Amino acid sequence: MEALSVNNLRGSWGTLLIPVNTDNSIDYGCLENQLDFLCNSGISGIYSNGTAGEFFNQTEDEFDKIQFLMAEKCNKNNIPFQIGACHMSPIISFERIERSKFLNPGAFQVIFPDWLPVTSGEQILFLKKAAEATAPVPIVLYNPGHSKTVLQPQDFSRLHREISALIGVKVAAKEQSWFDAMKVHGEGLSVFIQGHRLATGIKERVAAGSYSNIACLNPLGAVAWYHLMQENIQEALVVEKRIADFFENCIFPFAKAGYSDPALDKLLAFAGGWSSMSTRIRFPYKWVDEEDALKVRQQAKKMLPELITRF
């Protein structure tokens, strides 16, 4: 596919969530069905191997199979896609780029090496090397709030000046002062924030889109909500307030109880009811049991009917 750019990297993107069998293997049939649903949902694009894709807990053979399947489905349906070449080891990350480059994604997503924090100089060195490896395909820096090295707004303008192939960043939006700073330091980059705050990001003229946890909940609902943001931002903000209430009451208690982000994303997908995938994530991490997840599904139907009842 044609390489993405800062001008067309936007919208509500859906992630691949890896279906896990009881023996800890990947259910590729379920993954294929998930891809079919995403491709027909109207989503802005699809990406692999974010946190929800459990990139940190795959063999290299599994990585290759996942990328090939995504590329095949997206090319057939003319859907933009990005390959998450993320890994805690920069060596493995660059090997993943080298092996999957022939699939011609719109962009590669990378994370900073994640065992030791990286200095500002090491950040530039890593991203320059990543850009050389992916060229002419651009890169997107995946830097969520749980990263070992969490960047501040001023860091993004510094990196953008040094690495022209860096077209976008995935970050966690914070308070108003963060939005004010990102208006300055995010200029020239496609800034993607967490899905449940996307309406605020659009209103503040900071966010171009989201690698969306709302698309985990329901891709069709995420698409409809994103379109509402373009047509009636005030009404979209009303929906965002109810989303915040749902997360506060139904999702964040599991986070406080020690469940990981992938477990929460799988819980959202189960609550949305659009996939046959279970809430199971890979060993040794715990997942939300189905009895609790069914309660969350009932609350989602009550609290967010326009996001859930769209299929």
Tell me the layout of helices and strands.
Layout: E1 11-15, H1 28-39, E2 45-47, H2 60-77, E3 81-84, H3 90-100, E4 107-110, H4 120-134, E5 139-142, H5 153-162, E6 166-170, H6 176-185, E7 190-192, H7 198-203, E8 209-211, H8 213-217, H9 219-231, H10 233-256, H11 261-272, H12 290-303, H13 305-308
Parallel strand pairs: 1-2, 1-8, 2-3, 3-4, 4-5, 5-6, 6-7
Helix pairs in contact: 1-2, 3-4, 5-6, 9-10, 10-12, 11-12
Task: Give the proportion of residues in helices.
Answer: 40-55%
What is the CATH T-level topology?
TIM Barrel
CATH top-level class: Alpha Beta
Spans of 5+ residues with little confidence (pLDDT < 50)?
none
Radius of gyration: 18 Å
End-to-end gap: 29 Å
What's the tally of helices? 13
Described by strand count, sense and barrel closure, the largest sheet is: 8 strands, parallel
- The class by helix and strand makeup works out as alpha/beta
Mean pLDDT: 96
Count of strand segments: 8
In sequence order, what are the helices and strands, one letter per element? EHEHEHEHEHEHEHEHHHHHH
The fraction of residues assigned to DSSP E strands is 5-15%
